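In response to the reviewer comment on reproducibility (Comment 2.3), we provide here a single inverse folding case reported in full, input and output, so that an independent group could reproduce the run without further information from us. The structure tokens appear first.
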């Protein structure tokens, strides 16, 4: 979600990859908007169907905790406004990389992954309070998140989480098309105004760079609840540049205004893994999710999803647990 980034705050999303040059496929022509309601009945194949999957035909069903296997549902906390990772299409259906992968894993586990919308910086709190079983939202796997540490203060703020890593992404800067103002690096943002999503690696990077700016060259940072709000501010001329995970920035560049609104500048930085967050106390669910992910990688479903969304450079060969740094 989450940049990605090396998101360093506890609730960060990073959404991040050594995605050398992910070409966002032409299939990514849908736009979406998030809300704060549970995504019920819109049928993305990601838990929006009230009918439970038959666990008898699922090869990995017995790996799930008994209560989840009985319920037939894994509750997923997600910021559903981060195209192309997860977003709502014009019909209100939840679509994207994460929902498609969740659908494929659900077939292995015999359950539905039911996506519930929330702001990115509240997802880990929702996981700790057991509102969600997992958080899947282009969230960068970092040591701070694993240990429950606030990256700004270095203080413990809650129980950490375990991550099942499933993708890799980096952070990019973009500007209005034709108005780059010679911005190519993070240092070039000194004396400028940048818009980001709150709690993301992009937000962390901006704050870190702002501390390095020379006197009289202050960087102004405006953080929003979601990336679409940040894009709107930049589009309207209210900022000089924006930053988000490379897949998200590339998607915005390709689709916003028919490709006429934005352009990428410079190189992406801070490549890191996206991880599915699971409570440290729930190792059985963590291991079941990892097994399901490995299964869809092995059977080719993973590659189909990654190719569909045009992000093949961020693909992984196998799932990993807590691979972030």
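Designed residues, in position order:
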């Amino acid at each position: 979600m989450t940049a990605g980034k090396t998101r360093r705050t506890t609730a960060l999303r990073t959404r991040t990859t050594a995605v050398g040059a992910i070409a966002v496929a032409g299939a990514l022509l849908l736009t979406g908007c998030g809300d704060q309601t549970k995504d019920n009945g819109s049928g993305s194949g990601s838990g929006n169907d009230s009918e439970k999957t038959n666990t008898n035909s699922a090869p990995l069903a017995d790996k799930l905790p008994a209560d989840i296997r009985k319920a037939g549902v894994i509750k997923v906390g997600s910021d559903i406004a981060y195209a192309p990772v997860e977003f709502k299409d014009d019909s209100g259906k939840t679509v994207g990389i994460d929902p498609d992968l969740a659908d494929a894993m659900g077939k292995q586990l015999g359950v539905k992954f039911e996506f519930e919308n929330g702001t990115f910086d509240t997802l880990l709190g929702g996981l700790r309070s057991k509102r969600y079983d997992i958080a899947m939202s282009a969230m960068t796997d970092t040591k701070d998140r694993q240990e429950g540490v606030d990256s700004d203060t270095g203080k413990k703020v809650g129980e950490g989480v375990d991550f099942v890593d499933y993708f890799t992404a980096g952070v990019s800067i973009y500007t209005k098309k034709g108005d780059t103002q010679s911005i190519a690096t993070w240092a070039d943002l000194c004396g400028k105004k940048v818009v980001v999503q709150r709690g993301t690696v992009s937000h962390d990077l901006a704050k870190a760079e702002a501390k390095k700016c020379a006197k009289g060259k202050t960087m102004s940072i405006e953080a929003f609840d979601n990336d679409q709000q940040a894009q709107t501010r930049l589009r309207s001329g209210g900022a000089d540049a924006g930053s988000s995970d490379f897949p998200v920035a590339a998607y915005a560049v390709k689709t916003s205004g028919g490709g006429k609104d934005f352009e990428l500048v410079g190189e992406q930085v801070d490549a890191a893994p996206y991880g599915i967050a699971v409570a440290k106390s729930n190792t059985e669910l963590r291991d079941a999710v990892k097994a399901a992910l490995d299964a869809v990688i092995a059977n080719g479903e993973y590659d189909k999803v990654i190719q569909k969304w045009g992000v093949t450079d961020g693909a992984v060969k196998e799932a990993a647990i807590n691979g972030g740094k």
